[in-house]
What we know:
heterodimer; A: alpha+beta; 4-stranded antiparallel beta sheet; 5 helices; globular; B: 11 helices; 82% helix; elongated; disordered N terminus
Amino acid sequence: MKNAIWTNIFRNWQQTESKTVMTLKQVPIFKGLSEREFLEIETIIHERAFHPKEIIFKRQAPGEAMYIIMAGDVEIYIEDHNDNKNVLATLEQGDFFGELALLDNETRSATAAAIESSTILVFSQTDLESLIERKPSLGNKILLNLARVTGARLRKTNELLAVTQKESA
Amino acid sequence: MSTQAISHDPMLKFYRLVVGLLVVGFIYIIWPYISNVVTMLIFTFLFTTILLPLVDYLERKINSRGFSVLIITVVSITIIVTFLGSFVSNFVDQAKDFSVKLNQEEYISDLTNLIQEKLPAFDLNETDNQTALVSKIQGYVKSTLQNLLSMVGAVGGFLFTTVMVFIFTIILLFEYHHFKKSLVRFLPNKFFEVGLRMIYNIEHQISNYLTGQLLAAVSVAVMSIVGLFFLNLGGANLTLIVFIGTIAGLANLIPLVGPFVGMIPAIVIAVMNNLGNDIALNHVLFGITPVPSPFYIFDIAVMFLIVQQIDNNLVTPVLVGESVGLHPIMVMIALLIGGTLMGPMGMLFAVPAAGVLKVIYQEVSFITKNSHLL
């Protein structure tokens, strides 16, 4: 039988990685961070629960944060004037979206909504600014990763544009 | 029913009004019981806002928040204890000097002659009714004792509040980011991003205002000390000038009223030090003008007015700028309301509180206008 006192004393030693940290490790924006830095992010990141079909953010709304799916599915879509939904992407656990809000103050380019009950991590622009202020090396790592992700997406967009132009020509 | 239609529903408006009035009424009823705690929390928040940039800066340098808070705490305690200790010892010396001066026979007779000359109706030798005099003295002793007891109570209360605010501030500095996270947990998903922005704007508003005000207070303190030093060169015989300057700087934190409060200690000390000095009694403004300035009172007032003008027209606009962005009339109204509700303490908090309300109003009006985007 386990001794309750010893279990209690060594509880922290046996502590396993939290679900938040496990999710963060799947996101390229937090690539290359140390265990301690992941714990630092965990203390400031916000965990939010969304109901099925609940809107996370609407198109044209001011963007303040990026979202990381910890559990559940999310769809990104644009609605036309007749309320016809054009789904751009369906995202699942470990995916992230809205990351450009960390860099600029532009409005959202599409609407995001939970498909089912979802738990989503929210990392805001102010959280990033605070990290850059207090832990510059951690803040710089995140900024560099953000630049890499944005660059990769830009390259992909350019390739798609080139293919489209070739097809139309 | 669309969101727009819901927000214009007259029944909903009425319901909101009733709920609002009930909340205000409830706060009004329980206010006497919670006012002390609320005051402590407000002070805690203000001190945290002032010290937070320093803690964050140190954390960046030494990479440990715990040690950063510890260093700031030790340094703050050292500065406060050194300043207060030095102030108390200097003030006791000043009081001793004054009492020695008063005990000298010629000062008393001089003072008596002065009073009899200026106020002939005030008869100092009237001792006809001995019983009335004894009962009067007994009354004075009794009221003095009562005053002393209430003063001990007030000092005890003040010390308790100070210690609690200090402890709260240390905890909040250490846990600030975690505390903020716990606070926003209660926001509904719909208003989460807007709420984050509102908190950020409020933080910035208060932080900018407090930093600006503190720098302005330091500049007023330094200018006052320099001014008092020059008055001393002219023979004003002022002591404790560093403390007078510091009090003037601190009093400057209360807009409009503070500057006048700041000059009172200087005038009191000038009168105390120059009592019985005929040259000081017959002094004229700056020693050259025809305007009489007994005990350098008007010299001090003019010096403080000059300091205020420099502060108001040069220093504050640069340091504080439009950090709060309130119209001067709104500042005066906020001061009147703050003063009526909480006295001098209310006046100290009136402008930043009005600034916070302004940010909340701006964000709420933004939400109302863009409710279709939330």
